[in-house]
Amino acid sequence: MAATPLEAFPKSLLDRFLSLFADVRQGESGRLLLLTFNVFLILTAYYAMKPVREALILAQPGGAEIKSYSMALQALLLAVLVPAYGALAGQLPRRRLINIVTALFIACLPLFFLAAEQRWHVGVPFFLWIGIFSLMVIAQFWAYANDVYTPDEGKRLFALIAFGASTGAVFGAFISGQLIGVLGVNAMLLVAAVILAGSLMVFNVIDLRERSWVARRRNGKVAEAPIGKGNAFGLVMRNRYLLLIAALVVLLNWVNATGEYILSSIVQRAAEEEVAAGVLSREQEGAYIGSFYSQYFQVVNIVGMLLQLFIVSRVVKYLGVHVAVCVLPVVALGSYAAAALLPSLAVVRWVKTAENSVDYSLQNTVKQMLFLPTTREEKYKAKQVTDSFVVRAGDVLSSATVFIGTSWLALGTSQFAWINVVLVAVWLIVAILVGREFRRRAEHAPIGETA
Predict the structure, then answer these.
(1) Within 13 Å of residue 339, how many CA atoms lie on the same side as its CB?
(2) Residues 53 and 122 sit within 8 Å (Cβ to Cβ)
(3) What distance, in Å, lies between the first and last C-alpha atoms of the chain?
(4) Residue 60: what pLDDT?
(5) Could you tell me the pLDDT band of residue 137, with boundaries at 50, 70 and 90?
(6) In this structure, what are the phi and psi dihedrals at residue 81, rounded to the nearest 5 degrees?
(7) How far is CA 175 from the centre of its chain?
(8) According to the model, what pLDDT value does residue 220 have?
(9) Angle (deg, nearest 10), helices 390-407 and 63-91
């Protein structure tokens, strides 16, 4: 007797509830919630560790400058680690690959804790480690999500999975604030290790369900093959679509990081003006800056979460990925043009609020969807290139722009905003090309099962 398709059964109560936020169909809630919980735990662990990163690196002389230089060093390390990851993926199936890589990251945390407790100088090594972790492990998660969903499923469901990442970031920051005073800064490394171990357990539950489901469909056991032996950077360089994605990512991060400099310089200048006017004392300057950023990040996170929950899935559903990928550059184009014409704190604050809230919600979700119509090898290997090395390359280009603009050309806030306007114009052209290629590939993508 032929199996009755899932669509023939009525939606469960959970399916109907999740349908309020995305186009969730019968029987999709289980895997969807497990993947959402998995990325929630990963982001919770990351944001629980971020205060440790700041405490360790800024506690040493010249910490702020060292932190800036370490971003470039991260890019150099990723140029080595990404091909190493690709080589490992060429030898292992995805389940073992994810288990081994995640377990190696978890194993580092107790070592960093012991070193920090002994007051060893681990600020730079930990800064490098957490920067690589935050890029490679999250890219690995989204590669897996791209692997288990078809392009149609991913376009419908990735918005809800990305909501797990958004809430994980907020919850991780919350628990770090609650626990640091009780356990101490260094102990947050052990807390993060426990949370990451939980995320790895959830992943294995998901993958066991996936393999069991595929085995039932194929009436036998599933022998999972290694991902493939291609070179990670070579996959990107030989593929026009992947090159376009890389260009999109590098421009996005170049613009965003330069925008962060614009905001920082205006906030710093505003604080100095308050001190000069006698409104603030020199000792209150740091509190003024900290209070500004606390309110700013709170608004960005709240707006981003609301966009993620109620807007993102609908934009993708009604406009399509090819249009959604152009939304952030359009927002950024108008925002930086306004900042260039009116370079005040009030204007730039809301410019960056609009840009970052759309970036953290819609853009982040669409960026993951772009890998839906790619091969498994491209999902696991090329995605590591674009989501780790290319991200840091954009940061390095921004640092170079700021260095040249301040040290050689003596540019002001308005001039940096005009530089971003030019970069965003190029970014928008690239986004249009990426969207067209995604649409073409998605229309011809095979719909089948993943092992």
Answers:
(1) 33
(2) no
(3) 25
(4) 55
(5) very high
(6) -75, -35
(7) 20
(8) 56
(9) 160
Average pLDDT, the chain: 85
What six digits make up the tokens of 196? 């990451």
Cα-atom radius of gyration of the chain, to the nearest Å? Answer: 22
The residues, any chain, with a CB within 8 Å of residue 394's CB and separated by 6 or more, are: 249, 250, 251, 252, 253, 254, 256, 257
Instruction: Give the total residue count for the chain.
Output: 451
> Minimal CA–CA distance to 451: which of 230, 136, 226, 232?
226
What local confidence, expressed as pLDDT, does residue 448 receive?
44
Other beta carbons less than 10 A from residue 7's beta carbon: 9
| Two tokens, residue 94 | 């995805």
233-444: CATH homologous superfamily?
A: MFS general substrate transporter like domains (1.20.1250.20)
Give the DSSP H or E segment for 209: helix 188-218
Higher pLDDT residue, 451 or 160?
Answer: 160
Average pLDDT over residues 426-431: 98
Query: Which run of H or E residues covers position 255?
Result: helix 240-276
CATH of 29-232, one of 1.20.1250.20, 3.50.40.10, 1.10.10.10, 1.25.40.10: 1.20.1250.20
* Residue bearing the bigger pLDDT, 271 or 138: 138
Each domain of the chain, given as residue ranges in start order, spans: 29-232, 233-444
What pLDDT, in 10s, does the model give residues 57-114? 655 555 555 666 677 788 889 989 999 998 898 888 889 999 999 999 999 999 999 9
In this structure, what DSSP letter does residue 311 have? T
Q: What is the sign, positive or negative, of the torsion defined by CA atoms of 134, 398, 143, 365? A: positive
Q: Do domains 29-232 and 233-444 have the same CATH topology?
A: yes
In one letter, which amino acid is 435? G
Contacts of 269 (CB under 8 A, 6+ apart): none
The CA distance from 414 to 448, in Å, is 51
Please list, residue by residue across 400-419, b when 16 or more beta carbons sit within 10 angstroms of its beta carbon and e when fewer do: ebbeebeeeeebebeebbbb
Q: Is it the case that residue 3 has pLDDT exceeding 50?
A: no
